[in-house]
Amino acid sequence: MADHMIHAEIVTPYEVFYDDMVDMVIISSKEGEIGIQPGHTPMMAALTPGEIRLKKNGETKIAVGTNGYAEVGRDLVIIVVNAAEWADDIDLRRAEQALGRAEARYYDPDVDPQEKNHARHGIERAKARIKTARKYQDRSYSGSSF
Amino acid sequence: MEQISDIRKRIKSVQDIKQTTRATQLISAVKMRRARSQLEKTRPFFVICVDTMIELYDNGVVQDSRFFQLRQKKKGETWKIGYFVLTGDQGLAGAYNSNVIATAEKHIHGKTVDNIRKGLNTTAQLYVAGKIGKERLIRDGFDVVEDFRYPISEPTYYRARDISDYIYHLYVSGELDLVYFIYTKIESAVSMEPVVARVLPVDPYSLRKTIPEDNPYNQYGLIAGSDIEYYPSADEVMHYLINTYLNGMVYGALAEAYASEQTARMTAMDNATESANEMLDKLRLKSNQARQGKITNEISEIISGAESLSKQ
Q: Residue B236 is nearest to which of A13, A46, A82, comparing CB atoms?
């Protein structure tokens, strides 16, 4: 029923990550999660690294997005982020390594402020990925090899 | 008459050159396909960023106007302009590099003359990516920032973010008043054109020209006129938007430049290979003629020798 659905689009620099009609979109803004259903009032939101949940026909797809913004119209949500990834696709081990690297850089006294800023974003990003991966992958991959 | 051995030597050398041009052409073709598909994929991101920017501007919600308004200059003051020029690391790409360089030089001279008429000074700082452009512009006496080194091939969003951070700081700190990007843009499958784009301050009117009119993401007017909510605040959203816009703009320019360079190289090398083929045809004909000439000469020598013997 297209009337009761909302067009959700997730755009990253590398691709159009998602483009479909859904029942509801949940995004992670700076002040917590926001759920968007059809007929939402026009809104712009700044996004922080965190979950993006897409609900369609009773099923929920979960992705992790990084910094960016979302533009909401009556029947359209455009989510513009630097990177996005499905929760199931996250490589937990690599995310943990990335966190370690970012933290090492962040606490290194020799790095310049710009580098430090990058490292801080890196930490936020890695933490969001690890959190999401732990939360959702445990259920489906309980017997995984590591 | 040329010696056969000389002609053969030339044939050999032309063949060697042809091999090189052909190989370069094949490599560029592969790189070009990859660069173009990368460009295709990044376009929606760029277009949406620009579109949102224009929308916000038109709605008059831009409170933080330092990214939108030109700084005011009085007589005798100096405009500090930064040019980010994207050229190639290698030659063998036809007029690709020289076109970008010529465009940059022309624009800088134009701006300087313009400002002199208005009684203003101009300083132009050049941030050049690509070895060829850097060497040329330094030699031509421009103020090229030596510390700015940047690999032009295989652009990544991560690297683009470094440049956009850099631009942001240069602009906010007042080290630069204007930031331009000069790069080559793909127009169609075969044609490309050097462009000069003002990145900061944001100029919504000229930005509108950079996005195609029939783009499917044109949600222009979608939220215009209605009261828009901002989470957490308009300023915060604007901050994220400026960052994303800069990233998108830089990455888009890098991707365009790289795809153009590969396309230019492929076309140039295709032409070179063709010329080599033509030359080989001509040389082979010459070589055959010379060989035939030699044989004819020998036969007539033998005959005349035999004739003179039989007369005795």
A: A46
Closest CA to B158 of B38, B250, B58: B250
Domain that holds residue A95: 89-137
- Closest residue in B to A67 (Cα) is B240
Contact across the interface for A44 and B229, Cβ inside 8 Å: yes
Is A46–B239 a contact, with Cβ atoms under 8 angstroms apart? yes
Tell me the two tokens of residue A104.
């090492």
Assembly ipTM: 0.75
| Cβ <8 Å between A13 and B45 | yes
Chain pair A-B, CB pairs under 8 angstroms: 96
Q: Is residue A143 part of a domain?
A: no
Residue A143 is predicted with a pLDDT of 41
Q: What is the pLDDT of residues B131-148, one digit of tens each?
A: 888 888 888 888 888 878
A142 in a structural domain: no
Distance from CA of B4 to the nearest CA of A (A): 57
Q: What is the CATH number of the domain that holds A24?
A: 2.60.15.10
